[in-house]
Structure formats: structure tokens, C-alpha cells
Amino acid sequence: MVDSREVKQILTSLGADLCGIASIDRFDSAPKGYHPLDVMPTCKSVISFGCRFPVGALKCNTSTVYTRIRNTITPKMDMIALDFCIEMEKRGIVCVPIPTNENEWDGNTNRWRSIISQKHAAQAAGLGTIGRHSLLITPEYGSMIWLGAVLCEVELEADALKEDMCTNCHLCVNACPVNALEYEEMKQEVCWNHAFGDNKEKQKWEISCHKCRDICPHNTGTMNTF
Predict the structure, then answer these.
(1) Considering the chain, what percentage of its residues have pLDDT values greater than 70?
(2) Are 180 and 77 in contact, with CB atoms under 8 Å apart?
(3) What is residue 158's DSSP assignment?
(4) Which of 96, 106, 210, 218 counts the most CB atoms within 10 A of its CB?
(5) pTM of this prediction?
(6) What is the phi/psi pair of residue 200, to 5°?
(7) Element (H, E) at 139
(8) Cα separation of 180 and 91, whole Å?
(9) Judging by DSSP bridges, how do beta strands 145-152 and 136-137 pair with one another?
(10) DSSP sequence for 59-75
(11) Ramachandran bin of 168, using left for φ above 0, alpha for ψ from -120 to 50, beta for the remaining angles
(12) Residue 110: left if φ>0, alpha if ψ -120 to 50, beta else—which one?
């Protein structure tokens, strides 16, 4: 039988920089329809993993670099999750990959959601904690991390939860040019409409704003201190 240690070894061999495991009871507060059991009724563990996002993307005067890295790392995360599921099936264990960057409209809360929240899964798996800017902060890489997740039918040993890293300094709140963080729950549509979209002058789609990530005192963690 595969144990938690082997699970992490497999994910690391596939390219993950961080990985952690959450027990299914840590998702009691998930929105209706977006609980791991809503996706996979036989799920007993949620495996979260992350790949570091290059810090240099924050230091560029063009949005092209950040946008291209994000668009490249997304399929990388999906491929790691898919390959992991295949490796687990070779060992007789069924797993389901959760898309890294695919959202659907939740009419109950009027928000776009992944079928399982990647950042909440990562927090539940002990990778880090969600900051005031609504991004996951990890000790190793700060918020410069991209996330993937896999649902698993086997009950695996869960990792310890992290202590909250966000100090509520409100630097991100003050830095947001559209005041999307003025309330406890981020104004998702306001943020997305400002940060993502077509650059009419350059005639291309881009991510034009990540000021909340830039200004966070924990944005690079302890292993990305450049």
C-alpha cells in the first residue's frame, strides 16, 4: 500500500516543489457543490502540490513575462496531476486530478470557482495559509507558488496545518488600484476585470496587475529571498 511518504516522492519526481496531504474532514466549510466528496464521492484524502513561480516575473516592466509564465505553468501543473494519477493507478489506487486554472460560475454565491479550491486545499494540506490578499502564502516560497491538487480514494496520513503567516498589515489592501480587498471577501469580479484582459494598444491578452502579490512582505518566503 502506498503511504504519504511515497506519495510525496512521486510528486517530487514529477516536478512538484511542495506537496502535502489533507484529510477529508478538513473541508467541512467548503461551499455547497464544491466539496471534494461532491466531485469524488469515494475521496478520503486530498493531495495538494505546488511549483515555484519565478520571482523575476515581479521585477519586469512588461506584463508579457508574468503572463507567459502563468500560461506555461498552468499546463505543467495539470500534467503533473495527470501523471501522478496514472502512477497511482499502477499501484492499484484511484485518484482524480483537479484542473489548476479552470473555473465555473457558482450561482449560489455569484462567484467563479474551481470545482475544488486549490488554495483552500493547499491550506488544508499544510502547505501554507491564505493571506489578506486571498493568495496562499508558504514558508518556502511565499506567494510565488502555483497550485495543483488530486483527490484520492485512500486514507493517507495528513500533514500538520501551518500557523497563520499573514499579519494583516493591509499593505495589499492599500495597494489595490480598484479597492477589491477593502472587504474581508475579495471583490472577485472587480479584481479580475482590472487584472486580466485584452490590451487594446498591444492587441494581446495579458495579466496587467499583481500589485497585491508584489507588495506582500511574505511574497518570496524564506527560499526565494532575492
Answers:
(1) 99
(2) no
(3) P
(4) 218
(5) 0.94
(6) -65, -35
(7) none
(8) 45
(9) unpaired
(10) G-SSHHHHHHHHHHHHH
(11) left
(12) left
